[in-house]
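A.,

Following up on our hallway conversation. Structure tokens first:
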């Protein structure tokens, strides 16, 4: 079995990137990374591609909204870019798979909502292919609140999607959703092509369940990989076709570059990445 390649979701370094894009990417390369997962790339693909090339990095995957009509910003909601605009930007950067990172919790509570999400993503498979790309989905914990006939909304979604749709499982959020992580990874099989390697103290309850208290990432106690409650070793060992092990922190516990380096060491020392 071919080992996954290590990567890092650039959202982890959102503050550092906003002040020094090139310097931050250079530091990731110095740490030993060769891949990153892009975010917020649609409006500036040429700038991002140039910075990645200068650092000797590639971005085989990237996050962008594909399933949401409006995107929240501090200044109000704005329409999301058309998929063709997203795919053109991704192709310019060299991204191979565009992954939707978040669909609102209320859309996962009914079978009709889950079916709509799957159908909308399926409809983009051929459009993306026209740009030489594939599409995928990244979970949080809201996908595991509802179940239908004993099957979680997430796995119902998986069953309804075209087999060409890539799955990126956020391991921390799946555990937060109450999942038996190694068993879920095993069930997803070859459909699971990327994971977010994220550790920490698992929230006591699902923060996206109906009636849950207002939640923000500042409330999270996330740790370096291997130092928290997420069964990362068993989950990574259960994967059959994982191509990318993507380090991510919603809230890094300390110096973000040191924290990324520590999680990369966990992956390399454990023999989980090439």
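Then the amino acids I'd put at each of the 274 positions:
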């Amino acid at each position: 079995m071919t080992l996954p390649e290590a990567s890092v979701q650039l959202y982890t370094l959102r503050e550092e990137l906003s002040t020094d894009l090139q310097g931050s990417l250079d530091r990731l390369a110095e740490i030993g990374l060769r891949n990153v997962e892009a975010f917020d790339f649609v409006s500036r693909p040429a700038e991002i591609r140039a910075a990645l090339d200068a650092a000797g990095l590639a971005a085989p995957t990237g996050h962008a909204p594909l399933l949401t009509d409006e995107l929240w910003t501090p200044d109000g909601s704005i329409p999301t870019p058309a998929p063709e605009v997203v795919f053109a930007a991704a192709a310019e950067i060299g991204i191979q798979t565009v992954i939707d990172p978040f669909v609102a919790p209320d859309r996962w509570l009914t079978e009709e909502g889950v079916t709509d999400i799957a159908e909308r993503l399926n409809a983009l498979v051929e459009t993306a292919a026209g740009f030489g790309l594939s599409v995928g989905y990244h979970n949080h914990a809201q996908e595991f609140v509802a179940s239908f006939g004993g099957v979680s909304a997430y796995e119902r979604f998986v069953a309804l999607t075209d087999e060409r749709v890539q799955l990126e499982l956020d391991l921390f959020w799946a555990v937060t959703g109450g999942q038996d992580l190694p068993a879920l990874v095993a069930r997803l099989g070859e459909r699971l092509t990327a994971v977010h390697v994220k550790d920490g103290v698992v929230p006591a309850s699902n923060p996206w369940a109906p009636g849950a208290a207002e939640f923000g990432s500042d409330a999270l106690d996330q740790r370096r990989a291997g130092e928290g409650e997420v069964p990362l070793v068993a989950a990574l060992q259960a994967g059959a076709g994982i191509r990318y092990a993507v380090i991510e922190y919603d809230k890094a516990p300390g110096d973000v570059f040191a924290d990324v380096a520590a999680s990369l060491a966990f992956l390399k020392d454990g023999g989980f990445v090439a």
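The chain has a mean pLDDT of 96. Curious whether your intuition agrees with the design.

B.
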